[in-house]
Amino acid sequence: MNMVDVMASSNLDQEQGTRSFKYPYYPLSSALKLAAAVKDLGGVRTAIKKSLLAKQLGTAENAAAFAQGLTSAKAFGVLDGHGDYSLTEISKRYFFPTTETDKSLALLDAFAAPAAFAELLKRFDGDKLPTRDILGNILHRELGVPDSWKERVASLFCTAAQDVGVIDEQGFLRYDAARHSSGEASTDTQTQQEDRQSKPPVADQGQKGRQRESIPDMVVWTHPYKDTRIEVWTPPQMDKELWDLLEGYVKLLKPRDSS
Fold first, then answer.
1. Would you say 168 and 39 are in contact if contact means Cβ atoms under 8 Å apart?
2. pLDDT band at 250 (very low <50, low <70, confident <90, very high)
3. How far apart are CA 92 and CA 86, in angstroms?
4. What is the mean pLDDT of residues 28-47?
């Protein structure tokens, strides 16, 4: 990293305190390594001094890269503090999972923690991810990322998305689907099954008088929307043929641009 980069990053460190959309300077994997070092020093129960953490990592306490790494770890929500650092709840679930899905859900939470990343997820989840150039321009023009950093931040977003497994083979962003497959869906399904056992069948909207049948061994994906909700019923395992059919049906439902 040259002197221009160091000066730019120093300015960014000052600016990020007031920015609406925060973003990391280093990958999620680097943030987790920093969190692991804090964990090894006892950061689960007590805050670890910056000087001790720098010594553990073999770096200078005032090194620009070290400061950027700490800022990135805080942006990803895996470290908390200023001067003294401790693990967050996300980190504790990642390093000390108490359920089968804690670790994977913690990774997804960390990926979505930077405000700029969360905004990109809100905009593109379920759609094909645009090129990194376009992502960089969105980050710069709409989310406050400096022009000199936009390509790097766009690359960090795409790399993190691949690392946590939310990009499918066709390049579509599948964050919500990944959360469901990591355990949230099973909880929703269990609750819905209990509701169906205690309530009479619900009349199918649009087909008056016809009741929806209860189908065993199905996963119900539910998303609340305004005064109603969207439900999709699928087998626990879907092959590519079934997925292609479902994807095609969803595309048919996509509203046309009113303009």
1. no
2. confident
3. 10
4. 95
Separation in Å, CA 234 to CA 178, 247, 259? 15, 12, 34
- pTM for this predicted structure: 0.66
Residue 206 has pLDDT above 50, yes or no: no
CB 31 within 8 A of CB 110: yes
What pLDDT score was predicted for residue 240?
Answer: 75
Whose tokens are 């460190």? That residue is 13
- Residue 229 main-chain phi, psi, to 5 deg: -155, 155
Q: What's 257's DSSP letter?
A: P
Question: Which region, left, alpha or beta, applies to residue 231 given φ > 0 means left and ψ of -120 to 50 means alpha?
Answer: beta
Closest CA to 68 of 145, 163, 1: 1
DSSP output for 141-197: HTT---TTTHHHHHHHHHHHHHHTT-B-TTSBB-HHHHHIIIIIHHHHHHHHHHHHH
Give the span between the Cα atoms of 235 and 105, in whole angstroms.
22
* pLDDT band, residue 257 (cuts 50/70/90): low
Distances (CA, A) of 54 to 44, 89, 188: 17, 22, 43
Q: Is the pLDDT of residue 112 over 80?
A: yes
Mean pLDDT of the residues in the chain: 80
Residues β-bridged to residue 230: 223
Residues 222, 241, 111, 158, CA torsion sign: negative
Tokens encoding 198: 């205690």
Characterise 26 by phi-psi region: left (phi > 0), alpha (psi -120 to 50), beta (else): beta
Residue 44 pLDDT greater than 80, yes or no: yes
Q: Domain locations in the chain?
A: 175-201+215-253
